[in-house]
Amino acid sequence: MLAARLSEPGSISNLHVVELPVPAPPEGWVRLKVMAFGLNRSEYHSVHGMAEGMTFPRILGIEASGVIDLDPEGILAPGTQAVTMMGGMGRVFDGGYAQYVIVPRTQIITFRSSLPWEVIGSVPETLQTAYGSLTTGLDLQPGQSLLVRGGTSALGLATAALAADMGCRVYATSRREAGLEPLRSRGTIPLLDDGEVAPQLREAEPSGVHAVLELVGVPTLRDSLAATAVHGTVCFSGMLSDSWTISDFYPMDWIPNGVRLTTYSGQAQGLPAEVLQRTLDRIESGDLDLLPVHSYPLADIAQAHEDMASGRHMGKLVGLPWD
């Protein structure tokens, strides 16, 4: 099989497409024929040595979509459509940047869809994090207000779409003027983010918003907290800025009275199969526009990573290992 393997961290030049034996699943694992895999900021961190617990060489990829190729115990039939994500993929064991991947059966989610594989491949990990952030992280309710900090990222776009689908009033930020109109066209209220959006947001929402999804990270977190209403919640689910920790954090100075700060980082088990199926069905029917998709053959994985790092495209980047 062909796979994109990182020989060592430090540079995208260390990521090479190589030919390897097709892996054999041990007991309790299955083999997935990968039809598409999403690219994630997590893999950018891995390439640049910011991921802990990795050994090398390593096939990257924290998610994959495809069909069951082999289940030694016969529980999942060959040809069953399935997605998988997280659980150590691409870090502890080889991940989805390949034509085949083996994973524990417990992190397989099955579905049925006639959508193109590049569309299916854009959904799993993004949906898992968006759904988990809105439910577990924020407990967002229909009709409430939400600020998505980092609104033009794949996760930001997906979360905004799901929240708007719930009937919520959604504000979303972009660091670039060019990102404002695409956000507006997708039904959100765009805000230009210069690092401080709380003052302009409170012109529209004097009491603050019910919920904030923080995807930029530490540099904007304090301002996101300032944009939140009393008894509202900020959920820290992303680090687009690559800034992970807070120096000299003084909670009583950073966190306004009555505002809650939480986090979300889930696993495959955090995405119910019925939520995945319903989302794919609504995308297929045209009732839900989750993400713009930009696809690359496996041979162009280095270019895909460069585009992800530069933010060249708005939406989800997807690899197609059989192109």
Please describe what this structure looks like:
This protein is an alpha/beta fold. The protein has 10 helices and 16 strands. Keywords: NADP, Oxidoreductase. Pfam families: ADH_N (PF08240), ADH_zinc_N_2 (PF13602). This is NADPH:quinone reductase.
Helices, strands, pairings?
Layout (H helix, E strand, L loop, with lengths): L1 E5 L8 E5 L9 E10 L2 H7 L10 E2 L3 E8 L10 E5 L14 E5 L3 E3 L6 H4 L3 H14 L7 E5 L4 H12 L3 E6 L5 H6 L3 E4 L5 H7 L4 E6 L3 H9 L1 E9 L14 H4 L5 E4 L9 H13 L7 E5 L3 H10 L5 E5 L3
Parallel strand pairs: 9-10, 9-12, 10-11, 12-13, 13-14, 15-16
Antiparallel strand pairs: 1-2, 1-4, 3-5, 3-7, 3-16, 5-6, 6-8
Helix pairs in contact: 3-4
